[in-house]
Each structure stands twice: as C-alpha cells, then as structure tokens.
C-alpha cells in the first residue's frame, strides 16, 4: 500500500483480496481474514459470490463483473457476508491488475464503513451539528458520529444495537417510514419530533431526515439517519412567538386593550419600545381629529391606543394612551398610512435634512433615549388601514434585520384582524345600546293606580346588548298594565325585535284584551313575523323568540291578573314585608305558535308591591333560579323604602360589584 493509500484509510490496513475475471478468489490477506472470518484455505479458489450477503449472490456477482469490465478503478459500498452469516457493510475499491492481457484480475481493498467515516470524513462528521447514524438493512446501528453519541439520552442506541432494542417513545412512524424506505427509496425529509431526555434534561425538538444507502450494484444496503436539534432555532422561536401571539393578542373585544396587548407582547421579544396608534375611524367616539389644531409642521393623525417600553415610565413616548398623536405631514408615519407599505430603517437617519428637522420633540427623544433602528408597519384589515405600529430599538444594539421586519408584519397582521373585530363589535354594541335606550320608555306612568320605578342594567360589554324591556300602560277605569319581556339573543337584532314587541304589546293592550288573550295574539303575531323574516333570509323563529310577563292591576277591586309566556313569576310583597312568588302558569315562549296561556288573579292590598323582572336578575352561571329567587326575597325585605331606593337596593344585593352576565330589567309597582 502506498503512503497516500495508508493515509486515506487513517492508518488502518484495508482487507485485500484478488479476484479473477470469472469472479474466483485467487488471493486473500490476513486483514481480510480478520474482517470476514474466512481463512485463505476456506476462500481461495471459491467464487467471490460466497462473500456477498444476498440470496442471488452469484447473479449479482456476474452482473457486477460485467459492469466493471474495461474500467481501471471503481469504488462503492457493499454488504459483505461474514463467515458467521452476519452482514458487514464495507467501502470497496477495485483496481485492475492484469496478469496477462487475456486474463485480467482485480485487487479489491475493503474497509468497514465505520472506519472510513471516522477516518476520511472525521473532521466533517464529528464537528457537524447534525447527529448522523448508519444502519444496515436490519436497522442495526453500524456507525454513529460524536454528535449522535452526545444525544444518546434522547436517542438510546449504540453500535450493534437495533432500533427495536430501544423504547419507541413516539418515533414508531419514523421506524415504519425507514422500513418502507428500504423498499421504495423515497427519503424522509425534515420530519419534526419531540423527545424526552432519560437523563432529566429539557425536552428537545429534532428535525429528522432519513435516506437510503445503495451498493455498487444499486441494491439497498441500509439507511443514513440525520437529526438536528432545532429546539432553540431562530426560525422555530419565531414560529412559537407567532403562535403565542394568537393566544395573547385579541383576548377581548376591546380596541384599546387589544392595541395594548400587541405593544406589550412585542416588548422586549422584538423591540425595546412599541407604540400602536389608531386612525380616527377606529375610535370615532373620541371625537374627530380634524377639529384639532394643526400647523404646517404638525398634524393630528392618530390616537395612541397602545404603548410599551423596556424602560419604566415610558421615557420614549411623547403621548400617553388615549392622547392624540401629532406627526409631520411629510414623515415615515404619514407615508406608511398613505401607501400601506412598511417603513424599514435598520439604521435610523438622524442627520440634518431629514423629516426630524421639523419635529424637534421627537428628535430630542431619539437622541436622549438612543433610538437607532426603526420599523413602522401599517395595521391593515379587510382592505382598510386602521393605523400604524412602530417598533424601535434602543438598548438592543443589534439593528433590525429583514426577518425582524417579516416577524413584525406577521404580528401586526394578526393583531389588525383582532382590532378590526373589536372595532366592528364596539360599533354594533354602541348602536344596539343607543337603539335599546331609544326604544325603552323614558318615563313610566302608573296612572292613578300605582307608583312605579324601574331599572335597566345592560349586560357586561363582552356579552353584548340584549332585548330585555319593560313598560307600563295606563288603561281605562283606574287600571294599569305592567309588562316585562326578554328577547332571545343579543345585539342590534335583539334590540330591534324588542322594539317591535313593545309596540305590539302596547297596541294589543289598548284593545282591552285579557292577559292570556294578549299573549296568545302576541304569539301568533311573532310567529307570522318569523315566517316572513325567515322567508326573506332573516332570523329564524328560535332567534326571534321571547319570554314575557303581562299583568293588569285594577285599583277598584285590588285584583291583579297575570299571565306568563316562559317568564319567571313576579314577586308580591305585602306592606309588612312578606314576600311570595305567585304560581303563574309558565306557558311557552312567544314565537312558537302554540298560543295557549293561562292567567291567575292575585289580591293586592294598598301599599303592596308587585315586582316584575327578567331572568338576568335571578339567574347566573354559578346559581340557579331557586337560589336567585331566595336572594331576591331577602332584597325585598324592606318594602317601606321609597321605590327608587328600593330598586337600588335590589340591584346592589343581586348584582353587587360584579358585571352582570345578562341584561337585567326590573319594574316595581306600589299600589295606591
């Protein structure tokens, strides 16, 4: 062997054999005997096919010899057969050594794959961050690089062991893919897996790739497995950050809170200082910006909705949340708003001749706080620009890079959808509140029969506006009708339906119908409206349903007639404080078309209270109706209070300081 050949094998003497043109072994070295276990006497003069680990070894040898005829040198991988029957994967190099022109011979030099890998490729494979393994056709490990050995607590294995010798722990699909790969040759690329450490270290995520090794005859010899630890990779961290943003930004339907969530999320993960400034269209209730004073160098363009900084006290911010933000007419802020494209300035230009010349306030802040890198991203949702988000670095000396811009744009895109949803909800909520307040009675009259007071408490803003209503309707002959109802659902549709029902009840009441007949007519009316609206693509009957309690009190005889349509019973309080809940037949909700209601009569003496309410007063997620009615009984224990104070006491007792989960309508009448 030459010096160069010896160096090529790292000092290991390769196994040598001589094979003639017919594939017969004519020479066999001591190294060959050590590698494959055959003595010269056992192998010389025999076909080299016995050295191949294949059922059709003779045919493969013949095809192989024919393929290399005429070539002076060749090399490749071969799975040789050891004397004990096991396979030995070797790197084989053939050199033509003709004894005579008509009788060519081949000198074959074989080196175990593991020795080749650790010698010729040692500087590459052992310094690689990729864990590499070689496996034979039986999925037995025949070689591992140093990186693979260093993660053995995540992948227990050693040379000579099989994949089936170790716990699978979630990699069954990879093992199955590896077996299939030996058949079809289709590699497995970048398969992500999560592994637990047997040594108590942190869980890690690896990117796995597997491909097939083919021999010089094209037949599969084994597999190469490559694994890279991507637990703390920058790309993976950014994907995790975006996933986290989806959970932490837009947790409510509040525009200002969503903007603040975006600012706080990005600091310090992406920037040292972040502001979220919204256009007038997003916060119309704050008043038009056009009415504010402007100069040639400063115009009111936004309202600050979110701001966060790594520094306490927000020294970078000229404006606090809720305040109007002024900008120069010619500046990156207005350019982003006009173009809809991000502004990317890795190194902030603070030299003379820039837009900062006309903005001394910002210029001073930039110099005082060390701002040196800037990104401005438009908040765009559904084709409309809602404002801008500004990202700044101060203490972090690394300028923003292109991938920082990409991350900022992805974060803002997610937040913009949440902001737009919050804006749309707020707009509808305010419209529904305004509609509801307009439709509810501004003043109540009990005629000369009763003294009345009421309260209406909208549900918490997150649950929307409901369709609760109440009314009093003076009737001829010292009588008065009292009604409380609750429309199914929330929002503008519920408020509009409430208005229709209230108008219908007043109309039917003036027709002097009994309470049971009035509810039956109302039920039929709503059913017809449901059919018309559903046919026109409107709401379904279930969405247009309602409950209702209707009472008529006659001062002349002190009798009160009550009928209910799926509504809680009223409370009757005597002057001495005794509270009862008359057993009014519940009936079915309005809008089902069953139109069958029963009424009862209750005697009310002078000074008695009749209390009507919607179910939001007595029912919560944490207490059923019976518990709520018991609490209401306690709240009504002092009937001598003036009605306004009594209403306040009832609301305080039933709701306390918590936000109401549903709209609450309360109507209290005291007989005269």
From TrEMBL:
PANTHER family (alphabetical): STAGE II SPORULATION PROTEIN E (PTHR43156:SF2), STAGE II SPORULATION PROTEIN E-RELATED (PTHR43156)
The enzyme's E.C. designation: 3.1.3.16
Keywords: ATP-binding, Hydrolase, Kinase, Magnesium, Manganese, Metal-binding, Nucleotide-binding, Phosphoprotein, Protein phosphatase, Transferase
Gene Ontology process terms (BP): regulation of DNA-templated transcription
Name of the protein in question: protein-serine/threonine phosphatase
Residue stretches making up the PAS domain: 18-72
Gene3D superfamilies assigned: 3.30.450.40, PAS domain, PPM-type phosphatase domain
Catalytic activity: O-phospho-L-seryl-[protein] + H2O = L-seryl-[protein] + phosphate
Species this protein is from: Nonomuraea aridisoli
One Pfam assignment: SpoIIE
GO-annotated molecular function: ATP binding; kinase activity; metal ion binding; protein serine/threonine phosphatase activity
Top enzyme class: hydrolase
Primary role: Primarily acts as an independent SigF regulator that is sensitive to the osmosensory signal, mediating the cross talk of PknD with the SigF regulon. Possesses both phosphatase and kinase activities. The kinase domain functions as a classic anti-sigma factor-like kinase to phosphorylate the anti-anti-sigma factor domain at the canonical regulatory site, and the phosphatase domain antagonizes this activity.
